[in-house]
User: Fold this.
Amino acid sequence: MAESAGVYCPLPSEQDNVEQAKGNPALDSSTFIPPAPLMSPSIIIEFCDRCRWLHRATWVSTELFLTFPPPVLKAISIIPLNSEETGGRFRVWLNLEGSPPQLMWDRKIEGGFPELKGLKQRIRDYVQPGKSLGHSDKKSE
Amino acid sequence: MAESAGVYCPLPSEQDNVEQAKGNPALDSSTFIPPAPLMSPSIIIEFCDRCRWLHRATWVSTELFLTFPPPVLKAISIIPLNSEETGGRFRVWLNLEGSPPQLMWDRKIEGGFPELKGLKQRIRDYVQPGKSLGHSDKKSE
Amino acid sequence: MAESAGVYCPLPSEQDNVEQAKGNPALDSSTFIPPAPLMSPSIIIEFCDRCRWLHRATWVSTELFLTFPPPVLKAISIIPLNSEETGGRFRVWLNLEGSPPQLMWDRKIEGGFPELKGLKQRIRDYVQPGKSLGHSDKKSE
Amino acid sequence: MAESAGVYCPLPSEQDNVEQAKGNPALDSSTFIPPAPLMSPSIIIEFCDRCRWLHRATWVSTELFLTFPPPVLKAISIIPLNSEETGGRFRVWLNLEGSPPQLMWDRKIEGGFPELKGLKQRIRDYVQPGKSLGHSDKKSE
Assistant:
């Protein structure tokens, strides 16, 4: 089924009186809990911003979220880099509880950008080992 | 000037011999340093995934990176939520060193989604106070 | 249900022999039919490229396709403009068979960018009048 | 230089009196000229929507616009397909004045998705033959 907007969620009623909002915890920001620093499992994408790879990184992020919707992946962080020594970098890390982030892709080691199918398979093998990714998928052995 | 791809960066030479790669730290993942857990300044976008707001969150992320390229913003994290009590949530947080993340936008408090100009002004006032955002901008006082 | 990749479609088998491909119409580009010039119903988004609204236009396009998947909308065209007299333009047109494109949104007339809910309602009233857009929707009368 | 928003364009002044708007051609939609049916040069991307390739198509579109900003490319149209016989399709067409659209990429013929560098080179050779695409580019001969 295709995505559609706003079907399931409580939306703030347009009839809500502003006065009623007072004392409503949903509208009192002092009660809001900021997100935790590094959720698990989560993905981190580092890339060379001089190379103009923001849109590639964003697209990879979109695809990973659609394949591994929450709570499978809890967060994706995008980190643009612009120093000389990070030139040409495109790395994808998987963060799992209890260990340092694990490298899923490095453009220089792999000799190119992640082809999505392969990247999804690697991540799947950690976060959702039983999941099929479709026709052309082969599970890890 | 428009963005263009790959103009500035060292790309791995296609002539590089695989043998030469051995002992090359750029190709030895054991030397790679994983990104720090919570960079500063950075942005965190939380949203209700049941409401299908992934693409809205991603678009906001793209716009913020283009307005505040690194090193002004060092990272943006996107956090989809799918429990009942986070229904209808769309929050933007700014993380600055030495303090907990500060709320820049909450859809329920503000009564709607961030209009980009306003959100950029709020973030600008923290991360790059002197920056003009264009014709229609007014600086904070 | 969330989107996922490649579940339904015939993918070219990796076992296909290149020889077998000869004489296969799926692989003979002389048999391919180019798309028609202006499909119906379709959307056209014109925008001022000097204003850097490409990503906004693209996001609107993504949202419209997710709300009105094919065959409801058959195509979306994005037209960046960069002359002085198109400065500040953001227009959304609906193309229906048998009539010239109809204006759904003009940023100067409306005094701002399309809030998605309103734009979707206007388009819905032409292309899929019975469709509910979710909780906060009100149908045209 | 990075993109930034709203620096160059005339934005509708917030002080504009609504009364003044009357008789202003910028606000009189009866004077608006709908876009032409098929601009040239332009790109058309057809894809199998059952395969969930909308975001891939959109990303390719974004990259092509950033590499070939207007007036080099005047428009990009995205056409999702959902019938059985278009399963697995991902085609990129170039439309040039005076000839039918020319095929730049077909996933089945090429055996996979366009790697951006190669697709940009093919399009460049038609629309902007002298343009360098960066370090790793080789011009057509």
Observations:
- Confidence is low (pLDDT under 50) at residues 1-8, 14-19 of chain C.
- DSSP finds four helices and four strands in chain C.
- Chain C touches chain B at residues 52, 55-56, 58-59, 62-63, 66, 112-113, 115 (CB under 8 Å).
- The beta strands of chain C are 42-48, 75-81, 90-95, 102-106.
